[in-house]
Design goal:
The chain has 352 residues and is an all-alpha fold. It has a single domain, classed as Orthogonal Bundle (ABC transporter involved in vitamin B12 uptake, BtuC). The protein is 75% helix and 0% strand. It is built from 13 helices and no strands. It is found in: Cell membrane. It comes from Kaistia hirudinis. It holds the Pfam family BPD_transp_2.
Length: 352
């Protein structure tokens, strides 16, 4: 029995290594193909655009991976992303449904607090009420989108052209959060992405929290028998997911310089697609930050490359959807092969 478990674990590690290698090769292949057709693909300007497109996607995907690691899913991240930015803009700049304004720092805190409220509701309905996270987060997605439209009054907010203008130091501070440019015109937002990957890599791979997430996602019943705090961990990952979505929304607001009612479109699907393409299992118990990073890079390169090749946005969605389905199918096939190999090893061990 121990030998078959060891064999199963070894097969899983080999599969994870092959998946990571395959993703890296796919990224290189996409770069070669698109570059051969559009030499501007690897130009400094386009590479900056490519990196910039990964910021919100990557930050939110890191937290989404932890949710999926527990066998749950968060469909509300795109709406929470927009809600945090809209609440911040409305409270800071006015012009929406609220009859008052507040200083920037208070508005930022309120935007992030709204994101945490959404995450807390997701956790409560999933953990305490026992609703499937798919239904819970789908409902909160619509609630958050509706709240954004209601509070913002379907208005587009632009701090630099607001009437009246906020204090100059607030404009400078807010622009510096994500919109300022560093050397080689790299946006400050990129530092937030790098920090997110480092922090979540440590959290997932070097802490008791991360090890327990993996164990609880892989075998929830065993986690209950061992009295691991599964409910608390589910609360934590939903809160983290919404918080990262809120931070990403505010940073994008800073970089773009405006926020409107359509800002959150399609982000939820893109985030889940990146995590799944990166090798996380929708059944829980498997997922890495490195795989998620590669999934984000692959998805961003597909979006960027297809756009450069003149492929329409609708066809891009179709293509990315097919890639996501293929990734899930390959994962299912590979897991069946691993289980079959483990069963054969167990039978041969019993025969011996």
């Amino acid at each position: 029995m121990a030998q078959s478990s060891s064999s199963l674990l070894g097969n899983q590690r080999v599969l994870n290594s092959l998946r990571t290698l395959g993703l890296a090769l796919a990224i290189v292949l996409i770069a070669v193909i698109v570059q051969s057709q559009r030499p501007a693909f690897l130009s400094p300007e386009n590479l900056l655009t490519l990196v910039r497109s990964m910021v919100a996607l990557g930050m939110v995907a890191c937290a989404q991976m932890l949710v999926i690691l527990l066998g749950e899913i968060d469909l509300s991240v795109g709406a929470v992303y927009g809600l945090a930015a809209t609440v911040t803009a409305t409270l800071w700049l006015g012009g929406g449904s609220l009859p008052f304004t507040v200083p920037l720092l208070v508005a930022l805190a309120a935007g992030l607090a709204m994101a945490l409220v959404a995450g807390g509701i997701n956790g409560f309905l999933t953990v305490r009420a026992g609703l499937p996270s798919f239904i819970t987060t789908l409902g909160i997605m619509n609630v958050a989108d509706g709240t954004s439209l209601l509070i913002g009054n379907a208005t587009t907010f632009t701090p630099a052209y607001n009437d009246p203008l906020p204090p100059e130091w607030e404009l400078d501070f807010f622009h510096g959060l994500g919109g300022a440019l560093m050397r080689f015109d790299i946006p400050v937002e990129t530092l937030w992405l790098v920090a997110a990957f480092i922090l979540f890599w440590i959290l997932r791979h070097r802490t008791v929290f991360g090890f327990r997430l993996l164990a609880m996602g892989g075998n929830p019943e065993a986690a209950r028998v061992a009295r691991l705090p599964l409910k608390k961990y589910k609360y934590a990952v939903f809160l983290l997911s919404s918080l990262m979505a809120g931070i990403a929304g505010i940073l994008d607001f800073s970089y773009v310089g405006s926020v409107g009612p359509t800002q959150s479109s399609a982000l939820s699907f893109q985030v889940i697609a990146a995590v799944v393409i990166g090798g996380a299992s929708l059944n829980g118990g498997r997922g890495t930050i490195v795989g998620t990073l590669l999934g984000v890079v692959l998805l961003a390169m597909l979006n960027n490359g297809l756009a450069l090749l003149g492929v329409g946005s609708f066809v891009q969605l179709l293509f990315i959807g097919l890639v996501t389905i293929a990734a899930v199918w390959l994962d299912l096939v590979s897991q069946k092969l691993i289980r079959s190999a483990g069963q054969r090893a167990a039978r041969s061990g019993e025969a011996a």
